[in-house]
Write a structure and sequence with these properties.
By secondary structure, the chain is of the alpha/beta class. It has 3 helices and 9 strands; from the N terminus they run E-E-H-E-H-E-E-H-E-E-E-E. The longest helix is centred in the N-terminal third of the chain and has 18 residues. The structure holds guanosine-5'-monophosphate and magnesium ion. The site of magnesium ion has 6 residues, from strand 5.
């Protein structure tokens, strides 16, 4: 197993962040979710749909846990302009080449904040008649939720603070951090 030198504080541009969820804790939880999904999707040959760019790490880590027959693809949507809060503007799904009609589709997101992105995404994919459609998210901010969306698999429920690392960025930076960090007040 690879280890990372955990820095308690990181600075990205003008902002300071402190460790909130260490990598080992994330990996342990990803393994648990993987086992749960292995059980739930046995014999269903799911199509795993990772949402770029933020969910790239979580999607791959989760995918590596699967012992079932499954496929992987990535799509893109955007709702965030690189700052510290959600822009509220959601574009539609880009880059889905797979037929999803009749398939068991599991969407993998980095974080559900207001839920706006997830609600649009699930609606658009749902309109293509998948056999089933579920949502896995590494992080969920229940207090920030403004839309009707219930993630089926949640890595961690978190407070409505700004996070970076494990795929999440601050103005393009910090995605490569293996731990999840929170903005220092
Ligand atoms: P929502 O549409 O649920 O409000 O926001 C979802 C998107 O906002 C996420 O996919 C992510 O790009 C961004 N986002 C929400 N909360 C955070 C956060 O704490 N940190 C970062 N880096 N991005 C966030
Ligand atoms: Mg996202």
């Amino acid at each position: 197993m690879s280890t990372t030198t955990q820095q308690p504080v990181v600075t990205l541009k003008d902002k300071h962040f402190i460790v909130s969820i260490p990598s080992a804790v994330i990996q342990q939880r990803v393994a648990e979710l993987g086992q749960q999904i292995n059980r739930d999707y046995a014999g269903k040959k799911p199509l795993i749909v990772g949402v770029l760019t933020g969910a790239a790490m979580f999607t791959v880590d989760l995918f590596k846990q699967f012992e079932i027959e499954c496929e992987l693809t990535f799509i893109r949507v955007s709702s965030y302009n690189g700052g510290l809060s959600s822009s509220g503007h959601v574009s539609s799904v880009i880059g889905l080449k797979e037929q999803i009609e009749g398939r068991h589709v599991l969407v993998v997101e980095d974080i559900v904040d207001t839920g706006e992105t997830a609600v649009h995404l699930m609606k658009e994919l749902g309109s293509k008649n998948p056999a089933s459609l579920k949502l896995a998210t590494a992080l969920f901010k229940p207090v920030a939720l403004k839309h009707e969306v219930t993630p089926d698999y949640v890595g961690f429920e978190v407070a409505p603070d700004f996070l970076v690392g494990y795929g999440l960025d601050y103005d393009g930076l910090g995605r490569n951090l293996n731990d999840i960090y929170v903005l220092k007040p």
